[in-house]
User: Which sequence fits this backbone?
C-alpha cells in the first residue's frame, strides 16, 4: 500500500519537475531569442551593410544596448520601412530615442517588453579603390586626328552619406551588400557621364591630356546627382590614363620626333620617310645588293644638299653674312681655296718665332723645311705616275692580279691586247 | 545661440528616462550626468555644423555645374580643391574631441572649459553660416561669367576662417588658451 502510494507521489513529483523544467527551458529559449546587445563586431571594409538578424525580424528587448562604431550607422526597419537612424555611440533602446518605432510598437505589442524589428548597420567609411574603365572606346572627333577612339580608366572613392536612402534604394531593392557589387553598379554611371563630358566639353585629345585634373573635377560634378539619389557621394575621382589606339600614339611620337629634327609642314612627313627609307636601304646591303645601296647612297647624296639648304633657311651663305668688316667677296664664289691663297711668301718671314722649337726636346733641330725640299726624315714621296698611259693600265692590271681578281693568263692576255702584241 | 544650447541640452536631458531621474538622487551623479549631457549636446551640435558644411559643399558644386554648363573648365581644379577642403572641415568637425574625461587624469576637461568650448562651437556655426554669402557671390559670378576666380578666392578665405576656428578649439581643449 505504502509502496504504491510512494510510487504515485514519486511519479507526480517527477511530472511536476518535468513541467517546471520545460517551462524554464521555454523562458530561457525566449530570452535567448531576444536581442539585448546589438552590434556589428565582425566588421570588414568590403562589407557595406550588415543585417541583424541575417534573415527575418528579430525580437528586441526594450532597454537593449545598441553599439554603433565610428564610421557606422544603424537603421531600424519594420515592415519594410526605415524608421530610426543611430549614429556612432552606445544607445539604450527606449521610447525616448526610438520615437517612430515606439509609435508603431505601441499599437502592435499590447504593452509587452519586446518589439520586433530589423537593424541594418551601414558602413560609412570612405570606400576606396573602386575601379572604372571604358570597355568600349569613346568616339571623339579631333581637329588634328579626325575620329579617334579614346580609352580611359582609373579609380574613384565613395561614401554612403545618407544610409537610410541607401538601404531603401539599393540594399532593400537590389540586395547590394558588398563593395564589389556597388562598384559594378556605379561604374556604368561613370562611363555614361564620361562619354557625355568628352563629347560636350573637350574639343581635342590634346586638351584632354593637358586637363586631366579639370576633367576629374568635372566628373565629380557630373555624377553627383546620379550617385546622390542612392544616398552615395563621390569623394574622389582619379583618371589614371586616357589613351588612343597604338597607331595614333605612334603618329604622335613621330610628330614629336620630326619637330625635334626641325621638320615642319605637310612635306615634312614625306621627307622624313624618304630619309628613313634610304638609310634602311643603305644599311641593308645583303638584301638589296651593291647597286641598290649605291643608288640609295647616290640618291641620299643628291638629296642631302637640298634638304640642308632648305632647313638652313634660304641657302648658303645665310643672310647677313659676311659680318661687317669682312670683304664683300667672302666667302669666295669661285671655289675653295680662293685664288691668290696662300699669299706669296707663305710661310711668312719670321715664322717660327725666335727660340722655337725648344732646343732641348724631341723636336727636329733643323727648323721648318725650306720651300721645295722634303724635310729630312719625312716618308719618301710616292713615285710619280708613269707618263705612258699603257704603263698605267698595265700597273693597274698588275694590282688586280695581286689582289686575285685576275688570273695570270687573263693578265697576260690583257697586256698583249694593250701593247698590241 | 543661448537658445540653441538650451534646446540641445533639453534634448539630452529629456532622453534620460525614469531610471536617470531616479539615479540623479545619488550624490554626485547629477553633476556627472550634466557634464555628460553637455558633451552629448556638444556632439550633436557639431553634427549639425557638419551637416551645414555638407550643404555648403553642395552649393559650391552648383557653381561648378554652372561653369561646366558653359564649357568653362578653368576653375574646375580650384572648385575641386575647395570641395576637398570642405570635406576635411566636415570630418574635423564631426570627429572633433568633445572634451572627454579620459583614462588619463591630466586630460580631464573641467566644466568652465567645457563652457568655453561650447561657446566656441556656437561661434563656429556663425562662421559656417557666413559662407552662404560668399558662395552666393561665386554663383552670381559664374552666372555672369565675371570674376569667378576672385569670388572663389573669397570662399577660400571663409573656409580658412572655419579651419582656424577648429585649430583654436583644439588649443582650448589642450589648455593652451
Assistant:
Amino acid at each position: 500500500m505504502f509502496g504504491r502510494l510512494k510510487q504515485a507521489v514519486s511519479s507526480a513529483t517527477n511530472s511536476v519537475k518535468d513541467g517546471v523544467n520545460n517551462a524554464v527551458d521555454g523562458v530561457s529559449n525566449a530570452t535567448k531569442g531576444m536581442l539585448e546587445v546589438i552590434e556589428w563586431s565582425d566588421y570588414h571594409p568590403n562589407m557595406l551593410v550588415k543585417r541583424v538578424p541575417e534573415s527575418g525580424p528579430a525580437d528586441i528587448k526594450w532597454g537593449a544596448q545598441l553599439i554603433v562604431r565610428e564610421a557606422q550607422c544603424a537603421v531600424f526597419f519594420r515592415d519594410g520601412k526605415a524608421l530610426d537612424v543611430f549614429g556612432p555611440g552606445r544607445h539604450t533602446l527606449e521610447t525616448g530615442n526610438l520615437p517612430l518605432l515606439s509609435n508603431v510598437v505601441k499599437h502592435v505589442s499590447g504593452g509587452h517588453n519586446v518589439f520586433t524589428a530589423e537593424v541594418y548597420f551601414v558602413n560609412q567609411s570612405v570606400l576606396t579603390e573602386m575601379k572604372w574603365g571604358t570597355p568600349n572606346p569613346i568616339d571623339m572627333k579631333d581637329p588634328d586626328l579626325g575620329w579617334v577612339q579614346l580609352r580611359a580608366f582609373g579609380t574613384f572613392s565613395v561614401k554612403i552619406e545618407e544610409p537610410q536612402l541607401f538601404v531603401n534604394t539599393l540594399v532593400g531593392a537590389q540586395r547590394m551588400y558588398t563593395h564589389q557589387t556597388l562598384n559594378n553598379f556605379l561604374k556604368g554611371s561613370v562611363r555614361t557621364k564620361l562619354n557625355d563630358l568628352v563629347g560636350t566639353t573637350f574639343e581635342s585629345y590634346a586638351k584632354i591630356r593637358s586637363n586631366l585634373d579639370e576633367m576629374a573635377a568635372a566628373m565629380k560634378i557630373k555624377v553627383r546627382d546620379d550617385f546622390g539619389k542612392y544616398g552615395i557621394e563621390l569623394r574622389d575621382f582619379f583618371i589614371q590614363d586616357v589613351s588612343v589606339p597604338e597607331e595614333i600614339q605612334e603618329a604622335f611620337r613621330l610628330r614629336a620626333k620630326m619637330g625635334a629634327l626641325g621638320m615642319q609642314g605637310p612635306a615634312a612627313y614625306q621627307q622624313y620617310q624618304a630619309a628613313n627609307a634610304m638609310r634602311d636601304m643603305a644599311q641593308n646591303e645583303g638584301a638589296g645588293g651593291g647597286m641598290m645601296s649605291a643608288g640609295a647612297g647616290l640618291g641620299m647624296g643628291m638629296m642631302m644638299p637640298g634638304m640642308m639648304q632648305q632647313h638652313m633657311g634660304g641657302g648658303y651663305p645665310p643672310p647677313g653674312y659676311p659680318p661687317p668688316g669682312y670683304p664683300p667677296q667672302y666667302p669666295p664664289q669661285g671655289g675653295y681655296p680662293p685664288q691668290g691663297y696662300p699669299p706669296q711668301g707663305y710661310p711668312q718671314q719670321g715664322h717660327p718665332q725666335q727660340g722655337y722649337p725648344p732646343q732641348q726636346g724631341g723636336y727636329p733641330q733643323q727648323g721648318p723645311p725650306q720651300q721645295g725640299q722634303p724635310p729630312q726624315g719625312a716618308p719618301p714621296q710616292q713615285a710619280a705616275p708613269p707618263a705612258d698611259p699603257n704603263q698605267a693600265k698595265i700597273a693597274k692590271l698588275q694590282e688586280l692580279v695581286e689582289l686575285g681578281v685576275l688570273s695570270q693568263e687573263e693578265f697576260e692576255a690583257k697586256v698583249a691586247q694593250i701593247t698590241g702584241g | 545661440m543661448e537658445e540653441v544650447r538650451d534646446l540641445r541640452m533639453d534634448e539630452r536631458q529629456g532622453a534620460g528616462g525614469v531610471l536617470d531621474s531616479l539615479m540623479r538622487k545619488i550624490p554626485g551623479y547629477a553633476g556627472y550626468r550634466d557634464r555628460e549631457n553637455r558633451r552629448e549636446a556638444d556632439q550633436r551640435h557639431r553634427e549639425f555644423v557638419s551637416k551645414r558644411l555638407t550643404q555648403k559643399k553642395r552649393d559650391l558644386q552648383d557653381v561648378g555645374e554652372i561653369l561646366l554648363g558653359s564649357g568653362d573648365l578653368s576653375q574646375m581644379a580650384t572648385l575641386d580643391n575647395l570641395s576637398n577642403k570642405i570635406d576635411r572641415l566636415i570630418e574635423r568637425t564631426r570627429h572633433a574631441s568633445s572634451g572627454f574625461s579620459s583614462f588619463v587624469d591630466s586630460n580631464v576637461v573641467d566644466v568652465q572649459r567645457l563652457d568655453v568650448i561650447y561657446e566656441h562651437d556656437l561661434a563656429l556655426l556663425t562662421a559656417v553660416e557666413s559662407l552662404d554669402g560668399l558662395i552666393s557671390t561665386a554663383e552670381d559670378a559664374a552666372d555672369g561669367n565675371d570674376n569667378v576666380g576672385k569670388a572663389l578666392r573669397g570662399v577660400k578665405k571663409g573656409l580658412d576662417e572655419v579651419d582656424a576656428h577648429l585649430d583654436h578649439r583644439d588649443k582650448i581643449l589642450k589648455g593652451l588658451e
